[in-house]
Amino acid sequence: MRTPPAPILVLQGAPHDLGRQHGAALRSQIHANVGALLAGFFRGTSSPLLEEIRAWQKRLRAFCFDHWPWLEDEIQGIAEGAGLDRTTAELLSFRAWQYEAYHAGACSSFALPGSDGKILAGGTLDDPRFLYAVAQVQPTAGLRYLSFPLAGTVWANRGMNEAGLALGLSSLLCPGVTFELGHLVPVDLVFRSMLQFCSTVAEVEAGCRKFHFFGNLVAVDRHGGVFASANYCGGMTTYPATDGIARLTNHPVEPAANALRARGFTGPDPGAFSTERLAQIDAWIAAQTRRASVRDAAEFLGGASQFGSVNNPNTAFATIAVPESDASVLWVAQQPVTADAFYAFDVKTGMRVR
Q: I need a surface site. Which of 166, 182, 208, 302 has the fewest CB within 10 A?
């Protein structure tokens, strides 16, 4: 049986309209997410940190609404559409449940020359599927894009916009590293800004230098540009995309690992299988005696699912894009991801095209 295409939530209009449509359409899922992620705030089990978290929320509110003022109206719209209070909606978008473990998660991202010499980008989002939606956003300001927000948030993560910019995000797990919460910005909001306002990998690199966040990223644009970096709250390591190849999972690759040892990094988290997944991607790239096609990437990403593999039981979505050839087409597979689970969507409209 073939996995059906992911349902696409199309959002259109000014920021408040985007939020209200989102909140109303996903109301039940959003309330379930509040229960799953923020229950500690309502049961009082987070009370020892509550005052500290409130101060952190106030700082983030000031920072985010100063840099991205339109987010304030969108969060308000989500709150109204979903029937939430404004504070709860903010806590969702700011990742309050991960206050002390901000860069948790596991995903894989890669880029390599495709079958026609064009750069192919692909990877996975690994997290509980029930938390997420697939949204095609048509804002009044900026670029149209398709991404995977956690329901009830103004997030973006991996995805693609109408300029032909494809982004892959992999959380950067750094055991032993201090989080520097006084400076950290939610990576999902940085990616939202990039997908909505960046057209090239050069603009993505500028965004990485501007904002302090934890994350590995791989970006590909319609001009064949490839950019890969590890970003660790004010520090950044860029990785040359030799021969158009880039790949990152969830641990810092040298020289980022050495830089992070000075901050207390004790080595990759073995539970994330990050080094194993990176080795699998490397082996697959090395085996491409002919340059990879979309089908080749789908067969790799849709391969046997087991813990420790690129496609594993926590893989919620997988994506493939070749922006130089199809600047507005993103291939998306939802869980369970198989080679035949990929469907092509137009990132300008959210409509399925193949």
A: 182
3-state secondary structure 162-226: CCCCEEEEECCCCCCCCCCCCCCCCHHHHHHHHHHHCCCHHHHHHHHHHCCCEEEEEEECCCCCE
Residues 299, 250, 300, CA angle at the centre, nearest 5°? Answer: 5
Residue 122: name the closest of 284, 336, 230 by CA: 284
CA distance 316 to 295: 19
Q: Quick one: how many helices (H) and strands (E) in the chain?
A: 11, 14
Alpha carbon distance 114, 243 (integer Å) = 11
For 312-327, give the DSSP string: -TTEEEEEEE-TTT-T
Helix (H, G, I), strand (E, B) or coil at 332: strand
Structure tokens at 203: 């603009």
Backbone angles phi, psi at 170, to 5 degrees: -130, 120
Burial 244-277 (b: 16+ CB within 10 A, else e): bbbbbbbbbbeebbebbeeeebeebbeebbbbeb
Cβ-count burial of 286 within 10 angstroms (0-12 exposed, 13-18 middle, 19+ buried)? Answer: exposed
Q: CA 12, 57, 91, 234 torsion: positive or negative?
A: positive
pLDDT by position in tens, the chain (length 354): 899 999 999 999 999 999 999 999 999 999 999 998 888 776 666 556 677 778 878 888 999 999 999 999 999 999 999 999 999 999 999 988 765 544 456 799 999 999 889 999 999 999 999 999 999 999 999 999 999 999 999 999 999 999 999 999 999 998 998 777 777 888 999 999 999 999 999 999 999 999 999 899 999 999 999 999 999 988 999 999 999 999 999 999 999 999 999 999 999 989 899 999 999 999 999 999 778 999 999 999 999 888 889 999 999 999 999 999 999 999 999 999 999 999 999 999 999 998
